[in-house]
Amino acid sequence: AAPRTPTPGSTESADVLTRPRLERDLLGRRVHVVRAGAGFGKTTLVAGWAESVPSVLVGLTPAHRAVSTLARALFDGLRLRVPGLGAPLSTILSDATDLVPDPTALAAEFGGRLAVHLVRDLVLVLDNVDELDGSDGAVLLDGLVRHAPEQLHFVLAGRSDPPVRLSRLRVAGAVDDLDA
């Protein structure tokens, strides 16, 4: 990677590295898995990617293990980039409901709405994806990867393998794995 030259008047430091090959390949695969230990620069890498293409970046926390919390974060981010995504997801995720939505059904509905309204490539960048492991949030994400249209690309960054079934996509050559 080559050092990025800061533009005059910017606050960017000269020690930020560009990764042109990685940025160029971002829309070439359906899923990018970025896996490395603490301090390896995963967040810096995915944040740089998020700046280089139309994207939505969500930093995950343990709170996102709950399907309603993750769904709301994804919905809030994606609706800014995908006009018309609104109802009925907004109704399902209403603060007034006490029901926890079924993650599999919600993923299918979310994917269907994206298929109708997503008209260009968009990258959904999820940092700290390993926070979802073993949760209903992981089920929602797994379903979304399976049901979302081809125009939606995923970057899944974390310290371990993402909690998503990727074997079929790997066989199809649709997954790019980047390890430390």
Mean pLDDT, as a whole number?
A: 81
Helical fraction: 25-40%
Overall strand count: 7
Radius of gyration: 17 Å
N-to-C CA distance: 15 Å
Shape: globular
How would you classify the helix and strand content by structural class? alpha/beta
Strand portion, in percent?
15-25%
Strand order, largest beta sheet: 4-5-6-3-7
Largest sheet: 5 strands, parallel
Q: In sequence order, what are the helices and strands, one letter per element?
A: EEHEHEHHHEHEHE
Total helical elements: 7
Are there runs of 5+ residues with pLDDT below 50, and where?
1-14
Write out key terms for the chains shown.
180 residues, alpha/beta, five-stranded parallel beta sheet, two-stranded antiparallel sheet, 18% strand, disordered N terminus
In short:
With 180 residues, the chain is α/β, with parallel strands linked by helices.
Topology record:
Elements: E1 2-3, E2 17-18, H1 20-25, E3 31-35, H2 42-52, E4 55-59, H3 67-81, H4 89-92, H5 103-117, E5 122-127, H6 136-147, E6 152-158, H7 167-171, E7 175-179
Parallel strand pairs: 3-6, 3-7, 4-5, 5-6
Antiparallel strand pairs: 1-2
Helix pairs in contact: 3-6, 5-6
Q: How would you portray this structure in words?
A:
By secondary structure, this protein is of the alpha/beta class. It is built from seven helices and seven strands; from the N terminus they run ββαβαβαααβαβαβ. β5 (122-127), α6 (136-147) and β6 form a beta-alpha-beta unit. α3 (67-81) runs parallel beside α6 and α5 (103-117) packs parallel to α6 (136-147). Mean pLDDT is 81; it is low at 1-14.
